[in-house]
Amino acid sequence: MFNLFSSKNPDDEMQKAQALFDKVTSTKSDSRDARSMRIRMGLLCRAHLDKSFVTGAEQMASWQELAALALANGKEKPPMPEPSVFQKIKAGDNEIYVYLPEEYAHEAFNIGGRYQRAEIPALQAIETMQGLANQICLYELKLTEPFQVLQFLRDELAQSPHNSNTSGAS
Questions:
Q1: Which of 41, 46, 107, 128 has CA atoms 20 to 30 A from the CA of 56?
Q2: CB 62 within 8 A of CB 81
Q3: What is the radius of gyration, based on Cα positions, of the chain?
Q4: Looking at the chain, which runs of residues are DSSP E strands?
């Protein structure tokens, strides 16, 4: 009931997250349980993609400030932020680690960073991220319908009076 005194080892939790992703993506069965497992994994992957995008944008904003400060002081720019294949996602009352293969996690992180730097507008960020989600859902998880990513940005774009050109995170 209460996990106040249990110490979950993050490395073990990350290994379990990767093993779960591998198990779900390698399952050949189309049973009700297998489909349910794929759908749950799809929801976790969507949360990972969203969080990787936001993390990429936030870390890019911080990096830009540090880089500007370093340049102003005649110092070297700090190293670029690095994405993670693991994200900690809120699931009910708990937080769990979710794994995505490097190519997906890094791409989502980089799209968030590019959006933050205003290199791509919101609509392009949404379309590119949705392409990643489609690839994961349709090809990795073998779902018939992909999950929609970046709902928060879609909502923001729908609220904006000049919604076709919205770019850069604030």
A1: 41
A2: yes
A3: 18
A4: 86-91, 94-99
State how far the Cα of 111 lies from the Cα of 89, in Å rounded to an integer.
20
Q: CA 61, 83, 138, 150: dihedral to nearest 10 degrees?
A: -20
Nearest-angstrom CA–CA distance, 79 and 150 = 27
Instruction: At 93, list the tokens.
Output: 């009352």
Residue 31 CA to residue 117 CA, distance in Å, equals 45
Task: Determine the Cα–Cα distance for residues 128 and 151; give it in Å rounded to an integer.
Answer: 13
CA nearest 49: which of 116, 113, 100?
Answer: 100
Beta strands in 11-122 (DSSP E): 86-91, 94-99
Answer yes or no: are the C-beta atoms of 46 and 132 closer than 8 Å.
no
- Per-residue confidence (pLDDT) for residue 91, from 0 to 100: 82
Assigned token pair, 154 = 């879609």
Residue owning tokens 């590019």: 114
pLDDT digits (tens, 9 = 90+) for 128-139: 999 999 999 999
92: left (phi over 0), alpha (psi -120 to 50) or beta: left
First-residue to last-residue Cα distance in the chain: 40
Residue 2 pLDDT exceeds 80:
no
Q: How confident is the model at residue 163 (pLDDT cuts 50, 70, 90)?
A: low
